[in-house]
Amino acid sequence: AFAFGDFTKFVVEPSLGTSYVAGCMAMFYAADAVASVIAARLATSPFNISAVILFGLGLQGGVLLQFLYKVHYSQDLLGYVILFVDSAVWGVGDAVCNTQITAVLGLIYPQNTEAAFAAWKMLQ
After folding, report:
1. Distance CA 45, CA 118 (A)
2. DSSP 3-state assignment of 96?
3. How confident is the model at residue 72, as a pLDDT?
4. Residue 84's closest CA among 5, 35, 33, 31?
5. Separation CA 12–CA 87 (nearest Å)
6. Which residue intervals of 1-124 are DSSP H helices?
7. Does the structure show a pLDDT above 90 at 99?
8. Contacts of 46 by beta carbon, 8 Å cutoff, 6+ apart
9. How far is CA 106 from CA 6, 8, 96, 110, in A?
10. pLDDT-above-90 percentage for the chain
11. pTM of the predicted model as reported, rounded to 2 decimal places
12. What is the mean pLDDT of the chain?
């Protein structure tokens, strides 16, 4: 909800205009899809799970710190690149979090995975 509600309304639209909102959303989803496939492949051993979680938390934290310091995006090429990179980084962090939550649910509920995944999707 944040990626398409507050991020696009308060960051992308004032900085680049309404016409770039769809591009940032597409960048978010593309990065989310690619990172979900990669994170799912890496979620097979405990070491890889820890590394992927730390990587995802680092990405999310970096973007959040950038928002907290209220970075002002310019309307030149660098401003466009930074916003699109932020969208991609946010998508990777989202993919890592969702993949890891799904993997943990599969480990905790091996007999009732369908019910666990259904409850996760309903809460999501």
Report:
1. 24
2. helix
3. 67
4. 31
5. 10
6. 6-7, 13-16, 21-42, 46-68, 77-108, 113-123
7. no
8. none
9. 32, 33, 15, 6
10. 5
11. 0.75
12. 79
CB 58 within 8 Å of CB 115? no
Q: Average pLDDT of 10-22? A: 81
Where does residue 49 fall: left (phi above 0), alpha (psi -120 to 50 degrees), or beta otherwise?
alpha
CA distance 58 to 123: 24
Query: How far is 31 from 113, CA to CA, in rounded Å?
Result: 27
Placement of tokens 């309404």 in the chain: 18
Find all residues with CB under 8 Å of 40, minimum gap 6, and list them. 99, 103
79: Cβ contacts below 8 Å, ≥ 6 apart: 15, 16, 73
Q: In this predicted model, what pLDDT tens digit does every residue of 37-65 receive, in sequence order?
A: 888 777 766 667 677 777 777 777 877 77
Q: What is the pLDDT of residue 106?
A: 81
Q: How many CB atoms lie within 10 A of CB 74?
A: 11
| Amino acid at position 62, single letter | G
Rounded distance between C-alpha atoms, residue 99 and residue 62, angstroms: 20
CA 69 to chain centre: 20
Token pair belonging to 68 = 């907290």
